[in-house]
Design brief:
- The protein is of the alpha+beta class and 159 residues long.
- It has one domain: Beta-Lactamase (2-Layer Sandwich), CATH 3.30.450.
- It contains four helices and six strands.
- It is globular and about 40 Å long.
């Protein structure tokens, strides 16, 4: 697939539905995990213009920063700490409408207002999380959860 995205307008659902086949095209034939995480983060950032989108990968006893798009980020996060660490420890997607009201939120960027974190689960074990921050309050909802969970399932974390 060409490395150019066709950015769509319309409802959030329509944007995801147009983006997913393009992400599938980017991933097809490429087995390098870092390259695939990088392209997924870039595609999501390009389509939605979020403040920050990227992956943290489980390494030993912490999440370690992986490919991302946006301002510099926290490099390591302990299990159970912040939204990412809690998503990892609970193995579930977390939607935070207002990060300032989330106990223990890790403020990597003061511009972040809302967040969604999707765990990547392989063989009943969280191996990474997809973290997305918006500069707007109450930005993320069940539509984001549904489609972001689908998108992370497209990335082959077994390679």
């Amino acid at each position: 697939m060409a490395e150019d995205l066709s950015i769509s307008k319309g409802s959030k659902q329509e944007q995801y539905e147009t983006l997913i086949p393009q992400i599938e095209g980017l991933l097809t034939g490429e087995d390098d995990l870092v390259a695939n995480m990088a392209n997924v983060a870039a595609a999501l950032k390009e389509q939605f213009d979020w403040l920050w989108v990227g992956f943290y990968v489980v390494k030993h006893d912490e999440l370690v920063l992986g490919p991302f798009q946006g301002p510099v980020a926290c490099t390591r996060i302990r299990k159970g700490r912040g939204v990412c660490g809690l998503s990892w420890s609970e193995a579930k997607t977390l939607i935070v409408p207002d990060v300032e009201k989330f106990p223990g939120h890790i403020a990597c960027s003061s511009s972040s207002r809302s967040e969604v974190v999707v765990p990547v689960i392989i063989n009943n074990e969280v191996v990474a999380v997809l973290d997305v921050d918006s500069q707007h309050l109450n930005y993320f909802d069940e539509t984001d959860q549904q489609f972001l969970e689908r998108i992370v399932s497209l990335v082959n974390f077994n390679s």
